[in-house]
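Standup, Tuesday
Yesterday: got the pipeline producing structure tokens again.
Today: sanity-check two examples.
Blockers: none.

Example 1:
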Amino acid sequence: MPESLRAEDGVADFCQDQAAGLRRLFGHDQLRVIAFASGSAGAGKTSIVANVAVALARQGREVLVVDENQGPHDVGGFFGLHPQGDLLQVLNRQRSLGHVLFSPVSGVSVLPAGRAARQLGSLTAAQQHAMVEGVNSLEHPADVILVDTCNDHAHGFSPWGLAAGETVMVVSGNGASITDSYALIKKVSLAFSRRHFRILVNRVKSMAEGSVIHDNLHKVAAQRGIAQLEYGGAIPLDGALRQVGQLCQPIVASLPDSPAAIALRDFATELLAWPNAEYEQGGVEHFIQQLLHLSHRLSPSVLLA
């Protein structure tokens, strides 16, 4: 049989097997996939993702965090843990998915995917099947997927982030963060017609400051026809965050009455009430189809041009 036909058959089988496997992994037809991005490092994105995951788990949700970062500032590092593998090892059949996933707290599973995320658009049929087999081996469902996107993806933005139903842009209160975040929004919007982002302003001195930053970004984006920027809220500047961060503890659990913990917990609750995206109504299969379709369309020139 020609190699091209074997590849096509492999992709077809992959899509069918993946649907069954993902039902077992996620357990529900209703699913929320939310990507967190920032225009540059230092906005506090990973801390927000980790705390939101814990807040959701404390509300009885099963949360899967897809971590595209590598090194001491990844999600594992936030919890003081050192991941023992990466999704790429699963795709290459070097480790099982169960040995790559780790759970820093009850109800939260973290999938280190930094290396795999960069190769998502060029997976071979064998790697696709390895992913399916790994997914089929898991039984714990997830209600919410949070994607902690990396800032230096080879394509300019994460395929997981593009496929997610919501993209939250984490912006800190300084001018550089605001400028860099707007530049990323513009790039993604123009390249892929993604016209909706939620703005979460971090480390504000007052909640009014968060509204002002969003309003200014919204005004510029609307005037230039870039995108609709919806206000997702603000997280106050809280000295307790640094304190618990040194102890590798999420503030929503260790200091639940602190201003930052209250704001993060409120944000986690509110995101569950956001309108369902089309793929969520169609179930996990629709989301994965979007992910594969987008990842195979991406090329470095698309977003970096």
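Example 2:
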Amino acid sequence: MTNLPIFDTILELKLTGQLAHFRKFYTNASSLTYSIPPRTGICGLVASILKMPRDSYYDILSSDQLGVAISIAPNSGFRKQFFTTNYVGNDKLINDVSGHKQCRLELLLPAPGKELAWIIYLALKHGSQPELDSLEERIANQDLGYDLYLGQRQFRGSIALLDRFDAHQFSFLPESDYVDSVINKGKVKELDLGSFSLNIERMPLEQALESKGKKSFRRSIRFADVVIETSGKRLSGKFTNLVELHNEAHSRISML
């Protein structure tokens, strides 16, 4: 990703739902889920809001054009639970049990007494990609295009605009002693010991459309091991290449 100061606006959004499944790319028979929506999933949500055709948005929503940071929302919490799902082949009737295939599906659910929610930060540069210029207005007006789904179409999501930060309301930090979002492990130089609940999940960050013969296919072109504080606590240590928001909490976030 190019230097963060190219962005002139950061939108702070809250993404919520009752159920979610963000499929891990290395999953086989049992479909495992990430603890957070991966960057590629967030790009899919943005494309859905803007009504971009499938596979048309990878360049428009590349990391040079759209910065994405993710944190666990305050007062939220999740748990994971497996369910067994029946899948039916395309050439079979739904009541023909001979065509059913069972698959274990891991879902994200709200923890008891909590909500399932994430804070999403989108960094934009107005005018660089005209398709993105209407995003803030669409979310504020709940004009959500093709609507929001948390990994699969049966898991509806909601999104709300919490705040907007213009260029003078945030700054780039080459180094930081704390971080409030998930972060690429490569940007963690040192992590202080403390009462944390940490996951490290390898996930795709960026995709591209490639052609082979007469066929085109989607391919993940950038991956990272992402450090997640699953209770949403601020992590202390030594971190690089963050953005500090000039809000009351002086939140520091890392673009994936």
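Quick observation on example 2: The chain has a mean pLDDT of 91. Residues 4-87+101-253 form a domain with the Alpha-Beta Plaits fold (CATH 3.30.70.2660).
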